Amino acid sequence: MKLSYSRCLLIFLLSSALPSHAELRATGDLGVVIERETGSIQIVNTTKPASLSRIEGLGDLSHASVVFSRDQRYAYVFGRDGGLTKIDLLQDKIDKRVIQAGNSIGGAISQDGKLIAVSNYTPGGVKIFSADTLEQLAEIPAVYGEDNKLSKVVGLVDAPGQRFVCSLFEGNEIWLIDAKNPRQPVVKKFKDIGKQPYDALLTPDGHFYAAGLFGEKGLSLLDLWQPEKGVEHILEDYGKDDEQMPVYKMPHLEGWTVAGDWLLVPAVGLHEVLVIDTREWELVKRIPVAGQPVFVTSRPDGRQVWVNFAFPDNQIVQVIDLKDFNVVKTLQPGKAVLHMEFSPRGESVWLAVRDEDRVMVYDTETFQETARLPVQKPSGIFFTDRANRIGW
Amino acid sequence: MGYRWLLLGLLSTCAFADQPNPQRQQELLNMLKHDCGSCHGLPPKGGLGPSLMPEVLADKSDALLIDAIQNGRAGTAMPPWKNFLTVDETAWLIQQLRKR
């Protein structure tokens, strides 16, 4: 048998292109960085650290968030324009993509990993999809009030018991959604919970859902172990005599802001981080910081909390040491630091520095920069270890 | 109140003669995309804040828009930007939004 030269070459080329020759990739080391202006993402390796690929065509990512499948193979990207995109992190490609609404703010993945829920502004409501196929299973319009208006939906999180919890920005309600039967979810509504809930968080144990209020002081608290007790308004009196400053970027509450018994949250319109004792749900300290906080994110071990700020102070990042609740470090990584993400055990933190077109990695013990990656107008950074956390 | 509108109207007409320099224009466009865009979208089709697309702005006067941007809108999440934008710059930004 004789093979022609060209056939040999062809076989050689084919064999070198086979996936079996590709470098194996474990997803526990991966992450996604949003490029907000170009509507693209980068898949990154969080140990090296390095950029592995760029994926384009995700629409309007001027606001975006990401959840991961529990096998950490897929990233679900929720875009501003209602786009829901399922990314295959092993193959660097879009697996599926649907435009599920006109205007969207975020989403969550169910306890069993089989459902994706999205919170929408237009039309206001929640939609539930199959995580596998992105087939729509249910639509829950955020109807409120006597004239059945639709509210923007914010602060959507997953909760134990195959449930989701969300808040209605104009409707002033918290909804507890039981999705055990995903085609016919059961909604329990809590009304008049406080004015204009803007975002929410779930405590890491899945016990409490806390919605931050924009239209008045304080937070609305729902005990998911005893929802029949209703929603409690906490911290309604703090700072009520202080001059209210305009808010240049809505604070975000999702993520890990609970460290031990303490919950740290941004004070709306004030240059303060609030420390709440979660045993009594009382305010124990107001920590002065450099600007209006946007993200108040705890290092996974809970010793440090990193804070970034709204315009015009968004070139600054501050670190609070929980040993004595003081700011111990002020960094100036560059113009417009939009987001912070810790490595799974917190030895490093990645910062998205939008106007410098870079992501910077810092050692959280020495506060020294250890790496930087070129990223176009980076905003959110999301690592796959989020996959196994409740309420992320 | 009416007098204030008239004043703003006059100011905004003057503004077109006095455009920001090219470097400032870039800063303003970056601000529009990213700081305004965090609530209004990119393109600004709306988010927490309303759409700023030309067809939506068509029936709104420059004076009204300048007032909203400079002084914010009470009862909403829109803050005042007068500490960061001159009236001229605000008028120039509105011009850019209208011709997108």
UniProtKB/TrEMBL annotation, chain A:
The record's section on InterPro entries has: Cyt_cd1_C_sf, Haem_d1_sf, Host-pathogen_enzymatic-act
Is the keyword Ligase assigned to this protein? no
| Superkingdom to which the source organism belongs | Bacteria
Provide the leader sequence positions.
1-22
Keywords on record: Signal
Presence of keyword Signal = yes
Name a Pfam family for this protein: Cytochrom_D1
Protein name in UniProt = Protein nirF
* Originating species: Methylomonas methanica
TrEMBL record, chain B:
Query: Domain Cytochrome c spans what residues?
Result: 20-100
Which keywords does this chain's UniProt record carry? Heme, Iron, Metal-binding, Signal
Q: Where is the signal peptide?
A: 1-17
Any one Gene Ontology MF annotation carried by this entry is: metal ion binding
Instruction: Please indicate if the UniProt record lists DNA-binding as a keyword.
Output: no
Taxonomic superkingdom: Bacteria
Q: Which Pfam families match?
A: Cytochrome_CBB3
The protein's name in its UniProt record? Cytochrome C55X NirC
Give the organism the record lists: Methylomonas methanica
Q: Lineage of the native species?
A: Bacteria, Pseudomonadati, Pseudomonadota, Gammaproteobacteria, Methylococcales
